[in-house]
Design goal:
This protein is an alpha+beta fold. The protein contains 11 helices and 7 strands. The protein folds into 2 domains: 123 residues, no CATH class; 93 residues, Arc Repressor Mutant, subunit A.
Amino acid sequence: MPYRERATGLPGVVLWQDDAGAAPPPTRILPDGCLDLIWDGSRLHAAGPDTSARLHQSPAGASYAALRLSGGTGPALLGVPADALRDAGPALEELWPAAPARQLTEQVAADPAGALRAWAAGRLASREVDVLGPRVLAMAAAGTPVAVMADRLGLSPRQLHRRCLPVFGYGPRLLARVLRLHRALDQARAGTPLVRVAADCGYADQAHLSREVRALAGTTPRDLLGLGRG
């Protein structure tokens, strides 16, 4: 089966699975403000948060099961601040002591999706997610200016930036840019013309949208959307 997502019923936790196929093309992975815990069939590793897109080449026949962790859930469950994982993909045994890393790896190898969800549920029951995470995520997703976010949270913009680093891996301004890019791509994939997408999503104009796509995704909007150059 191709890529698919499943709700877990756990706040900030989505289960995703992907089967690469016999001749998988390179995949452009866009930043999304999340951390992932990924089983690739042989090991567990953490991924992200990315500050820009990266190309990933899956081996032929690879099969993945993973948790996407948003709103500060990732650092709480993994026990590692998000900025320590920025633009990195360490194996779990590099982050945890050998015994618990080996135990979880063995459980996930036996039942990838079930064990990952059970682990997340158990950790959420015993760990506290920074309450700042869901609030900042919601405001950033709505396009709230950073100064307004800070004021609503009773913080200065500089304090908010520092608080966001261990939760998201980067500050609220970059988080808002990343989430705005995903809003824009969702609209464009639904058939909205790029000039209208730019206006609806708060870009100054279509050229501004193109610059942001180049900066965060490393390509043009048309190439990213598979529209060619016509």
